[in-house]
Amino acid sequence: MVLSGNSIEHALLMLGCYSAGVPIVSLSPQYSQGGDFARLRNCNDVVRPKLIFAQSEPEFSAAMASLEAHNPALRFASINGGPERISFAEMAQTPVTSAVADAISAIKPSAVAKYLFTSGSSGLPKAVIQTHGMLMGTIAADEALSDGRPLPDDAKMLEWMPWSHIAGGNYTFNAGLWAGLTNYLDEGKPHPDHFHKTIENLYEVSPINFGSMPIGYAMLVDAMEADPKLRSCFFRNLQFMHCGGAALDINVLERLEHLAIAERGVKIPLITKYGSTEVQIATMLHWIDEGDGLIGNPVPGITLKLVPKDSVYEIRIKGPTVSPGYIGEPEKSAAAFDDEGFYMPGDACSFAHPEDRSGGLVFAGRIEGNFKLDTGTWVHVEELCSALKSACAPFIEQIVIVGEGKPYLGALIWPPATLLAERGQAGIAERLSQLISAFNSRGRGSSTRVRRVAIMTVPLSADDSEITLKGAASPRVVLSNRKDVVTALYSPSPADTQIIHI
């Protein structure tokens, strides 16, 4: 089980485990950085590793001590080793025998390659079984969509996406190796305190592809608009971009396209994907489109069953990249599939062009997260959150919609810390009141009209599981922890000054 983030040693461990037929678990470093390490110990109990690896002993010493006290039988390794620790160099010097070839030849598509933990948006993270067949199925689907153009011999990729998630650990890592790309590990990430490192790396590495979350593209566009040199370096060798985790704001997409045309004279394809830890990549938008929220069509090998649910469709998935289930949780594994063997992620979609169903699907949020007002009107929460963020940019960093069984919708909104510091709570409240009023005035019904808003100044707590590993608010946990705020939103005369009446 690996506690630390992406590194050359981490990559070698991963490939070594694949070859030996030993499952590997790449954990999010967040589990090992502060707090009481309860989630870390839970992960240990679920997958029961024999060896723990951390890149830096000092950085992860507290986490390792917590695991050691929890399970004294564990062995620990790091780069430099230490008392009662194994050094990476010591592991790398293990003699190669015929057992290596025997282990590789014994690997079947159904063999477990790794376990990846879900983000924990609905409770404790679950360990999803990842087979070798699933990993190869993802590459095969990608190859089937390729236009067959040979890549330059010096083609490079710059990777920040963590290997604890499918996007980095299964898709970009494996696809990059398969394509023969040189993988440069990016110490940066889409965060105000770290993105400058990504910019510095882009000056040196002009990648052939680039992937990030929507917030990463927003930060990149801001930087490129102010820095022509960065724009030139970024687009010089770029063939395509990919985005996942959430819908990319249409304003950011349009600015990105404008920059590409200014630099290269053409738009650069931005590939969006839909999937999960349980299914890898299920759909892909692999063509240039002006639409908003498109997730494309099923990738080769994947079959979607679309079950009507009110005005949308519930997505169900079958194919070679779908996991058999969760380790140690047979009941949850069984409950995740319908009677025809389709995995049920609990997500919804609609057709971008109902008259032409080949035109792709649009993500329509979570089935489970949607709710009804007291009128019986359904509220499609993720669609509404995405629309509000776009309409109120850049004043909403996180948002949780409330109103189940209530006469109107409310929202808990966390503005960016920098804007909160600059404008203060009153200034943010005034501007959001204007923007949401304008949003509500666009002929909206009760299911998309927000009547009261709470401006939140106490940040979401990762230790309390209020924020998932994907960086999104966990509505169920937030609403449980902040019941007083929800009560104030529906009070006839809320005394709290943080409540805005729209």
Automatic annotation (TrEMBL):
Residues covered by the AMP-dependent synthetase/ligase domain: 2-326
InterPro entries: AMP-binding_CS (IPR020845), AMP-dep_synth/lig_dom (IPR000873), ANL_N_sf (IPR042099)
Recorded superkingdom: Bacteria
A Pfam family per the record: AMP-binding
Single Gene Ontology MF annotation: CoA-ligase activity
PANTHER family (alphabetical): LONG-CHAIN-FATTY-ACID--COA LIGASE (PTHR24096), LONG-CHAIN-FATTY-ACID--COA LIGASE-RELATED (PTHR24096:SF420)
Protein name: Feruloyl-CoA synthetase
Organism name: Sphingobium fuliginis (strain ATCC 27551)
